[in-house]
Each structure stands twice: as C-alpha cells, then as structure tokens.
Write a structure and sequence with these properties.
Elements (H helix, E strand, L loop, with lengths): L13 E8 L3 E8 L2 E8 L2 H17 L2 H15 L12 E5 L20 H4 L1 E4 L3 H11 L7 E6 L7 H9 L4 E6 L5 H7 L5 E5 L2 E2 L9 E3 L3 E3 H4 L9 E4 L8 E3 L3 E3 L1 H7 L5 E4 L5 H17 L3 H15 L4 H4 L2 E4 L2
Parallel strand pairs: 1-4, 4-5, 6-7, 6-8, 8-12, 12-15
Antiparallel strand pairs: 1-2, 2-3, 9-10, 10-11, 13-14, 15-16
Helix pairs in contact: 1-2, 5-9, 9-10
C-alpha cells in the first residue's frame, strides 16, 4: 500500500506497522530499515470494526474499566502478532486502514498492564512514504521560536486562556481571538509561524458527506487549508473536536482537518480522534507546547504530555488518549 517507500530510509529505531482488514483475516505489515514482513491472522473484519469503535466510545465516555478491558483485547489483536518485529524499536508509526483509523494506539494495554505509549513513542501516518517525506523535511530543523495562535469561538470559555498560555512558551507569538480569528488573517500570518495552534470548533464526518473543516468567521474546508503557505511551519496543533476524523480514501488516508494541513506541507499535525473537553484541553495542550518549544519532536512532545497527565491524574484518558501526532 506504500509502493514509493524505501524501507532503508526510514528513521532509525522506527518500525512502521500498517493494517489491512480483509473480510475474514487481518494482514499486518511491519517495516523498518531492515526490511518488510507481513503477518496474517484470522480475524473477522466486522468484529474488529465493532471492537475498535466500542473502544473509542468507552474511552470518550470515561468508562475506565471497560476501556482497559477493550484496550487489552485490541492489543492482542493488533500488536501481539508483530511484537517480535518491534524489538529494538523506540518509535512505532501506525498506518491504519478504514477499520483501524479510530484506534488510539498509544492507549492500548499490554499483558503487563502498561499503555503502549509507556514503552514507545507512537505516531500515525497516511503511509510509510509520507512518513519518510515528512521526516526528511523535519531533519535538522531548529527548535521553533514563533507561534500563531487562533482562538476561535467565544462559547469555548477556556480557549482564550489556553491560547495565551501557549503563546508564552515561544519567543514570538501572534494571537488571533474571536472576531480577529478570520481566514484572511490566518493566511497573512501563517507564513511566519514555526508552530500553529488552533483552539476552536472543527467538523469531521467519517462518511465524508460533511467535509472536514474548521470554524472561523465561516467554515474553512480541508481543501482550502491545503493551499495555505506552510513552508516554514514545523507542526500544527489542532485543539478542536475530532480534527483527525474524516472519510477514509484509500492511499490518501483519512481526509480530515489534519489532512488539509499535511497536504499544505506541515510535516506534523497533532489532532484529536473525538470530541474533547475544553477545560481539560486548556491543561493538556500547553504541556505539548512546552516540549515543542524545548525542541522535542512532535510525537515525543505528545508522549511526554500524555505521560505527565497520567502521572498527575489531572487530565482524563478521554482527552489524552484522543490526541495523536500525524505525519512525522
């Protein structure tokens, strides 16, 4: 499914795990700089789809015991068949198909009772080729110094405070709030931003009938976002609801709001798998930016923020598990 990928050029100690759910079996590809292998396991596609969807739902609703049971079951389905191919890896880049695109892989639980993210840095990519290209663009980039913050939506009471906390993490910042959070202002300021942070409403629909978009003074769809001048931007953080959700289109992956920024040239987009609470978001997302400003790669910044949230117990799994880094 990633014919342009050259496995020898994958980042060091990174394993790409790609899924293909067929009617009665699941094919799991595992690729690293050492080569490509495939494991085929008996698995009913409809049953797997139900398990993946139910896991996301119980996490979103905060049903902790049910979520842990579902996380363990999915770990056995999705990770154990390729566990031997993960030896020596520190990062796993998942390439999900339609069935597995809703899975928060970092929240899967192994037989020791640990989350996958405890042992590995976890990220998602539309394909191994996209991972290679995004990683190449990121290579050698200095720590980000400037941020563009878009805090849209007066009804999101914590979005403004969240945006101000994010802005303080960087040497330079531009903050667009409420009536100033317009698409023309975004277009003007984005070319000078190392990092973009969006706190506001987003729309994503798995069926594709409602195009993925963000809400500014109007709805801005992914196709329009893809035309933004993002040559300088190293990472986009989308602190809105369901910014990683959208219709799945074969080799292109999920056509979400995040996909729009990736198509525009951003090598990494941090996005959400389901609706999130804005109170908890105001605590969690500044933690990511603290790490980004220190120079950590986006996937590692997400992981460190998740681990801190688990350790402190001040951000529920319904939020931290929803966050994923897409790209590199």
């Amino acid at each position: 499914r990633s014919p342009a990928a050259d496995w020898r050029r994958l980042p060091a100690r990174t394993t790409v795990v790609e899924y293909l759910a067929l009617p009665s079996r699941l094919v799991i590809f595992a690729a690293s700089a050492d080569g490509l292998t495939a494991e085929v396991v008996a698995c009913d596609r409809e049953a797997l789809a139900a398990e993946a969807t139910d896991f996301a739902k119980v996490l979103e609703s905060g049903e902790i015991m049910k979520a842990k049971s579902a996380a363990s079951a999915l770990y056995r389905r999705l990770i154990e068949p390729v566990a031997s191919h993960l030896i020596g890896a520190t990062t796993i880049a998942f390439v999900p198909d339609t069935v597995t695109s809703v899975v928060p892989f970092g929240a899967l639980i192994d037989r020791n009772g640990d989350y996958l993210l405890v042992q590995y840095t976890v990220l998602n990519a539309p394909s191994a080729a996209v991972l290679q290209a995004a990683s190449a663009r990121r290579a050698g980039a200095p720590p980000p110094r400037s941020v563009l913050v878009i805090a849209a939506g007066e009804q999101l009471h914590y979005a403004s405070a969240e945006g101000e906390r994010v802005a303080r993490e960087y040497q330079k910042s531009v903050v667009l709030k409420n009536e100033h959070a317009r698409f023309d202002a975004l277009t003007n300021d984005v070319a000078n931003a190392d990092v973009i942070h969006f706190a506001g409403h987003a729309i994503g629909d798995d069926s594709g009938f409602v195009p993925a978009s963000i809400a500014l003074e109007r709805r801005v769809e992914a196709a329009e976002i893809a035309r933004l001048p993002l040559r300088r931007t190293s990472v986009v953080v989308l602190a809105g609801c369901s910014t990683a959700r959208g219709a799945h289109r074969g080799m292109e992956g999920v056509i979400s709001v995040a996909h729009g920024f990736l198509a525009g040239g951003a090598p990494s987009v941090i996005a959400t798998l389901w609706p999130i609470d804005d109170t908890a978001a105001a605590t969690f997302f500044p933690r990511i930016h603290q790490r980004l400003a220190e120079g950590l790669p986006p996937a590692e910044a997400v992981r460190e923020a998740q681990l801190e949230s688990i350790r402190r117990g001040d951000v529920p799994a319904s939020l931290w598990a929803a966050i994923q880094d897409i790209g590199s």
